[in-house]
Design goal:
The complex is a heterodimer of chains A (241) and B (108). By secondary structure, chain A is mostly helical. Chain A has helices at residues 7-19, 23-41, 46-56, 59-70, 75-85, 89-96, 107-114, 119-128, 134-165, 168-186, 193-212, 217-235. The chains are: A mainly alpha (241), B mainly alpha (108).
Amino acid sequence: MASSSPSPFRTGFRNGIRDAFGPAAAVMTAGFIGFGALASDSGMPFWIAALATALMWALPGQIILVEMMAAKAGVFAIVAAVWVSAVRFLPTGMSIMPMLRFERRELLKKLCVAQFVASTSWVLSMRQFPAMPPDERAPWLAGFGTVCTTQGIVLCGIGYLLVGVVPAEIQAGLVYVTPIYFLLLMFGDIRSRAMGVAVTGGVIAVPLVHLLSPQWSLLVGGVAGGTVAYVILRKYPEKAR
Amino acid sequence: MELLALTLLCGLATYFWRAMAVLLSGRLTLDSELFRWVECVAYAMVAGLMMRIVLLPSGVLAASPTADRVAGCLVALAVYRLSRRNLLAGMAAGVGFFVCAAYVRLLW
């Protein structure tokens, strides 16, 4: 415990729960309904989709799992692609951790809170932490993350069930939510030229490799497209705008 | 059983980076060149996956015309930009367009 009084923990946790029902969560809603629909359409059992949401808590990785499973890719290829897709948690996690206050020898607690580092919580943490007392930050993240994960599982279930009961046109629309969601997140909000070049590289390379080998398209296309993007960026470094 | 093992492995693979962030935070600065390359690959992979779902889908999406799927993306992007980056508005427009297009084709 950070201090003898339990109050920073309770305040932080409670605020985290409250924020999990805010606008950031509304955006996530569509993403997880889409994931449930995609999982159902790809023949993934519901409990696996729910388990993936609870354990991975990273939508891009979850979609990679669904899609590659459907494409009958091997275990190694799937785990490798998921592993690469989660690299973003290293910089996001490393930027959040120093803002949290822990006692010495609280590594276990740190490792638990780390599970809730995700894109949505990172964006919100960076915005809210400066105004939040340091003692309340880790509990906030835990409260926010727990509720968001629970919502994610419920929403994934809703998406999963909806696919079975609505007409084919709406079914297709539900599955279509996923690419639109990420398209807007990535293409619509390109913050740096590096991101733009890398996104373009993947957009061209992955479908091309898919025509040759569906099982390896993500890994081979991603590495090829990303490497070309990296080389282009090294040759033509970003100029000051 | 195999699915369960696969899902657990994917969970571990994802958590690996979160744990690394805890262990390395404050101790190590990232080798920026290596990290930039990995970041490029990660972006390319996720963007490429979405493009693959749009251009070469399997399942229920495969029954829809490619033109509808591509047009829906363009509508979503346009509305997103016009609505000052409102994610929900962009998504509603793109998905709405796609579903409406399917019904219009049905009526024709």
